[in-house]
Amino acid sequence: MQNARQITHWPVVWAAFGAGVVAASHIGKLPPALPFIRLDLHASLITAGWIASMISIVGFSAGLVAGAIADRLGIVRVNVFGLLALAAGSLAGSVATSDVTMLLARFVESVGFTASTVTGAAIIARATADRDRRWALGVWAIYMPIGFAGMMLLSAFAIGGFGWRAVWVIGSVISLLWAFVVMSVTRRWRQQQATSGTSGRSVLRNIGLGVTSIGGLLVAGSYAVYAAQHIGLMSWLPTYMADVYQSGVLLAAAVPALVLAFNGGGNYAAAWAMRRGYPIWMLLAIGAGGMAAMEIGMYSSAVPDVLKLVFALVFGLAGGLIPASALAAAPIYAPSVAQVGTMSGLMVMATNAGQLLGPPALAAAREQAGTWDGTLWLVLALAAAGLAMAMLSRPMELHAARQGA
Prior knowledge:
This protein is mainly alpha-helical and 405 residues long. It has one domain (10-404): Growth Hormone, Chain: A, CATH 1.20.1250. Helices cover 83% and strands 0% of the residues. The chain has 20 helices and no strands. The chain has helices spanning 10-28, 30-41, 45-53, 57-73, 75-93, 99-127, 130-140, 143-162, 164-185, 187-194, 203-211, 214-245, 249-275, 280-298, 305-319, 321-328, 330-333, 340-369, 376-392, 394-404.
């Protein structure tokens, strides 16, 4: 993808990054609250898994379409719409009285999450100069561990004193406030974009470009199986700690938050490596292989608990290489700057597929096996698939890099 503009609009970049953090906070608020929501709304374990993953349903089913629409309608406009939808869905969830109404509220949040994350990467790609783009998109991936971990800890603190519904109100207010921040910070840049000739092709043409990019599809697939493992683990880790170790809410949130901090370190390591010329396929492969190795230790009943924690932290670090690399691949496989939103939509569609299916799949495997250790076969199969797709994407990435040179 070619983009001759050499000025990076850093305030715009950080406003988009903040929108991603806010969006991720709506995933992070749930794990500490999930046992209380199950009790309050009389939800089964499987239903709770769908409550956890429902926020990914729109991204899974229509992420590519959302990216193409955003390229056509305006990426900042769609980003702000996403933040407003997150605010509305979180507010609706705060007054839910049944598992069905909570699922509907999470669906509205899913619309907002998809709109905010699809356009966040596209805004950053358009607002950065060539020399800064890979690094900025690599750092963009840290929005997930920051928003997830930060809100997970806040949720754990707030639940004890105010209940889980207060956390949903806090999430709504934060989303509403950040929508105004994005509108204010990007005002002048949006005016420049309106006269710079970066309008996209038709929505159908953009979708066609996305679904015919074999390299982009392989990278997206690697991202999807990563998300299924990572979000599945993060969603159920507080419940696992409560079931196995009878941990309190705060400790049960602190451990996954620490894993997420290491995941953010992996995101930054990938950004650092890409800035120095390391290929994306290699980082994806290292991440998938590292996750598989750590999962063997994490899910083994023979491993001491302290060592399991070490394996979990390295799992987060290795896995963190994948989202930063996958999101940075969008401009590589996009034919021009006007289609970055579409390719970002493909990546968001992939990660949402993993986020949607991961928690209920892990719950189903746990129910069938009778123990959490019995889910090892599932996560290892996912890691192996991610490694294979990363290796297969190598020639496509080299070809795309030559085309864009």
